Amino acid sequence: MKESKSDRKIVSVISSRQRLAKLLNIVFVIAFLGAAVCPAVVFAIWDRNEAMGMVALALAVVWVLMCVFMGKGMRKLEAKIKELTGQYIVKDVLAEKIDIVEYSPNRYINKNFVKNCSILPDFNKIKGSDYIKGNYKGKEFIYCDLLLEWESKDSDGHMSTTTLFKGHLMKMELGKNIDGFVRIKEKKNPRKSNGFFANILGMAISHNSIETENVAFNNQFEIKTSDDQLAFYILTPQFMESVMRLDELADGYTNIEFCGTSVVVTLNNGKDSFEVKKTLGSKRRLEKYRQSFREELEIILGVFDEILTKDNLF
After folding, report:
1. Which residues contact 188 (CB under 8 A, 6 or more apart)?
2. Is the four-CA dihedral 310, 291, 145, 4 of positive or negative sign?
3. What element of type H or E holds 30?
């Protein structure tokens, strides 16, 4: 069980590490720039004095190793800040609305689940955070933030990384087996053509798709299903309106899959939940972050509320 801390202590513990992280970041940038010019300096000294060149080379190696270790230290410090933020701020906010079974600020859902999830893109690099497992209104759910990327090498050996998905993944148990699947994928929308969304997530209309009587929904989403009757059972007029409201609120691309005993929702909106980006320099700022996290949680729970509407009998 975590130690209970006063707001003053929370601010002190987190802000001291944030300031250290900022200082290390400045030092790292200077050290990295120094490492970049090391080869030129070493060659210049070597031309004048071979012995001094050997010394300069040794110092350059030490300098580069220092940059490597400093980079690792910074990543550990950032992870520690995330852990402290989660344990002393986020967890209490979550507990206001849900029964927490497990919460880990630096973890994400099982990688194999992500690979096999049909509403997520293929990837070869994965990161994630804010793994939450709990119960909400009697239903078991899992939530996490995900970053999915594709790293490739061109013919010249240059590496490039493309962001395919950055946002939220939610999975809720329905409490019953629907015996089939209904998959709702958002089509490409020119109004959302910022960053990677426009190129990666455009969905071409498939001849195997079904359409509803809601023209606006059909224009925005593609629907695939193993059973037309099952799809129309789930896609009530109220639920379709709810999905469109949810998509507008989430400000990203919304995909939903009902399959077996669960429903999975992915929101590809380029956001990472429950982040403290500014130095936590006062109790007033701490309270502002708590309120911001409550608002983020309301959006997450709003997704589940729409799924749990009585109109869909879940």
Report:
1. 198, 201, 202, 203
2. negative
3. helix 7-48
- Give Cα separations from 12 to 90, 219, 286 (angstroms): 17, 51, 11
Beta bridge partner(s), residue 139: 136
Place of tokens 């955070």: 129
Report how far apart the first and last C-alpha atoms of the chain are (Å, whole number): 34
Phi, psi of 24 (to 5 degrees): -65, -35
Q: How far apart are CA 256 and CA 183, in angstroms?
A: 6
Q: Is the pLDDT of residue 243 over 90?
A: no
Residue type, position 124, single letter: N
Residue with tokens 């019953």: 176
* 3-state class (DSSP) for residue 224: strand
Q: Report whether 210 contacts 240 (CB < 8 A).
A: no
Highest mean pLDDT among 60-69, 104-113, 303-312: 104-113
**Cα(149)–Cα(306) distance, rounded to whole angstroms?**
29
157 — alpha (psi -120 to 50), left (phi > 0) or beta? Answer: left
